Amino acid sequence: MPNVLEISGLKTNIRLRRAVVHAVDGVSFDIAAGETLGLVGESGCGKSITGTSIMRLLPPGGEIVEGSILLNGRDLVPLPEHEMRQIRGRDVAVIFQDPMTSLNPTMNIGKQIGEALKIHKDVSDKEAGARAVEVLGLVGMPKPRERLGDYPHQLSGGLRQRVMIAMSLVCEPSLLIADEPTTALDVTIQSQILDLLDDLRKRLHMAVLLITHDMGVIAGRADRVAVMYAGKIVEEADTATLFKQMRHRYTEALVEAIPRLDHETTAELYSIPGLPPDLTQPPTACRFAKRCRFDTGVCHNVDPQLLEHEPGHWYACHHPAGDAVPAPARGEASTV
Amino acid sequence: MTATSLAAQPQPIADDSAATYLEVRNLVKEFPVTRGAVLQRRVGSVHAVSDVSFSVKAGETFGLVGESGCGKTTTGRLIVALERPTSGSIIVDGQDIARMAPGRIRRKRRDMQMMFQDPYASLDPRMRISTILREPMTIQKLGTRQEQDDRILSLLNEVGLASSAVDRYPHEFSGGQRQRVGLARALALNPKLIVADEPVSALDVSIRSQILNLMNRLQEKHRLTYVIISHDLSVVKYMADRIGVMYLGKLMEMGSGEDIYSRPAHPYTQGLVSSIPIPDPEVERAKTAVAPKGEIPSAIKPPSGCRFRTRCPYAQEVCADVEPPLRSFGPKHLAACHFPLIPPVMAE
Q1: What is the CATH number assigned to the segment(s) A3-222?
Q2: Which residue from B67, B210, B283 is facing A262, i.e. has the nearest CB?
Q3: Taking the complete model, does pTM exceed 0.90, yes or no?
Q4: Is B274:B290 a contact under the CB 8 Å cutoff?
Q5: ipTM topping 0.90
Q6: How many CA atoms lie within 13 A of B61 on its CB side?
Q7: In A152, A225, B263, B280, which residue has its Cα 20 to 30 A from B25's Cα atom?
Q8: How far B273 CA lies from chain A's nearest CA (Å)?
Q9: Across the interface, do A190 and B275 touch by the CB < 8 Å criterion?
Q10: Which of A251, A233, A250 is nearest to A308 (CA)?
Q11: Per-domain residue ranges for chain B?
């Protein structure tokens, strides 16, 4: 299948008054049409900045300093703003966490959905309205025709997120970026929205970048997973492999730190000590070494490279978990 | 923990043994809905908590779980007397705080403290940590200044913060450290009961387990009774001996973590359980039960009869007409449903 998105060596900095945050520090991945890539990590790991880099909607001071972002073969990084505007909404769309702050409170939802269509395609008000009804129906909005005149505050959180999804889909983009799309929603509504995204991805054959902190959401919805820590991808594999044979010690620790609903245990949860590193001065060696249970000298001196150690399974760890084959260029034996 | 020992001795419905520390009986809280800026005519009420009863033994952890608007937070605030109930009683250590005069409640608050969700919003940004931790002692007129200073240092030590924290301000701490301060403040008066409302929801996964482990250690050390309120059933199941599942102001089901997860009687519980994503693709993709459809109805006009009936796949006519009573489904396992998923246990 053709890759819709190919990112290589992406580096995004955020310039503050006295320092530069290396928010994304050499990230590469690709997503094929109809595929969902889960990008998982904790706050500040750079997962959202990766998403906004693709959209070129970086916060003030944000700047892509290296790398390329190919969308359907075309590099977005050097594009001038007016060309980027053509692409946003038409070829790539984004859904954010909080639908209340990303919808315009003064515009009814019919207009908001039709707006993107009128910007990108030469359609009349009537056609835009008809299409809005169509996509609202597609996202499972009850009685879509009667809802066009509603304002965002009249809708519940779940319905607002459906409106957001409808807006993002109206031009049938080839890539959808869903940045914590369900974090603000209740669990029963979350599963409805995730089902909807899954269904739409299959029907419209979209590539989906699912950004989340929730390993559970990833497990159920992603085809492949990339785990981010402190601005870098530390492990990437197809979802089944990642959860069954996780290699990176950060991935392992992250999963061990979550209480599992399906496990009966009262034993202490593993807790990762300390805090993520300061990305204004990122460590030169393994960025997780300071918080890792398995660190040795090499971890503090040599930056582990993200390599395909097993077919389709990439990780950057000097002491991988489980029965991993010894990685090349490693200083010492595994301490499992 | 106590969950297994409790399950071993079958006991029907309420447990009146001497060790009960908290008992909530027929608790009701309605908030007025008003119209008009000046006259504030009452046009209805939000039925936040409707006839909720449960009891918690000393040293036990009771979990309240449910979606937004189910009344779990209001129940928690009622327990620590931050809200007064419309009716019903809240018996803490033998005294009904629902009928207590405000002055006496203030004294009683020493025994029951609250830990809040958002460590960014619940600590005054202009206060140093020492002031934050001293405040409860000052309000309760406890100890000399020196004794308070000593207490502050021992509290910081207990929650795993350096004593140098006393002179710092909340913004100098990470979310996890702030939640430790919140826990220290809750512990300042040596309470017996702590109501923790979403104690880890605002925290990153790797920090959550630090706080949960700390809460468990402190409970053991001080024999604390916990009421943990969360939308996250995984957290509640890990922490609690018993769990109450709330929906639109009603307690739908109550039981041990295993009752709730492995043998739910109420279709809502089953729907809630199946909605929760589990970090294991095999488990996640093998799920058969479906999540409840539709939206949560308004608490101003809750559905008649069973409040879940509008989203329930098994609803029949009787569900709209008759409110199902709580029935027993095993030792300490109760649910309110006309068409439960497992057979009820007949009362002897």
Answers
A1: 3.40.50.300
A2: B283
A3: no
A4: yes
A5: no
A6: 25
A7: B263
A8: 8
A9: yes
A10: A233
A11: 2-9+16-122+193-206+224-335
